[in-house]
Amino acid sequence: MNDALLTPTNADLALAVEANLHAHLPHLGKMPRSTFWEEPGLKAVITELDPSECHVYLAQVTPRKAEATIRRVLKFYRAQGCLPMYWQVGPSTRPADLGKSLERLGFRLFARPPGMAVELARLEDQPARTANFKIEPVQNENQLRQWVTILATVDGLRDALRDGFYEMFHGLGLEPGGSSQLFLGLEDGVPVAGSRLFCAAGVAGIWHVSTLEQSRGKGYGTIMSLAAARAGQEMGYRYGVLFATPLGEAVYRRLGFQEVCHLDVYKSPE
Known about the structure:
Elements: H1 10-23, H2 25-28, E1 34-39, E2 42-47, E3 55-59, H3 66-79, E4 86-89, H4 98-104, E5 108-111, E6 114-119, E7 133-137, H5 141-155, H6 159-172, E8 180-187, E9 190-200, E10 203-211, H7 220-234, E11 239-243, H8 249-255, E12 258-262, E13 264-267
Parallel strand pairs: 3-4, 10-11
Antiparallel strand pairs: 1-2, 2-3, 4-13, 5-13, 6-11, 6-12, 7-8, 8-9, 9-10
Helix pairs in contact: 5-6
């Protein structure tokens, strides 16, 4: 590991949190019936597994070509039977006001998750509120199946996408100390929570923090987030980044994460 950001500005961190997400896209394209679409000025994922994973993640075009590009991309997704699809407008999008063009063509703002960052050394450990909770690194197929099932249950994923995620993460490898690491939280020996570390773009990305509904309110999401963050710190990364869900944003602010950017996520017309 020799690419860690050491003294970034907030602008650097804003680009890094988005770049960490983009670094994962080729892996999504390796799922069954899925494609990572990359061309100059465009990064996108197309999959038949679940429309929720059909996204344009990056577009960089001239203002004159913005609406023509949107029409061309939307036509392609429609031809693949992958509608509705989603379009992200983030710190590196060009033009910066691409959302206005999307809205003129029938897209609507769907979500606006904040991109957040923290210096990992400033994080404080939080004890679980029960002695019966422990964390295990995911290192075998049975644990991976349990981890993916928790994620699918919490996020409401289709079975096809759940199975696609299983194959993708299995293909990434489950060796300890890798750039992609999964963590499983067990309550009384029963898997109830998960999280993921993904190191790329000079930062430690914290992703897929999930707790089953019946086990919420006990601090497990915080503990699982910290498990991924600490693993990134042990690998030499100085900053942790994530995109927060509405459920998790307040937790991350209490841990010391600060907002450095946001994503405007637009949903296409059917």
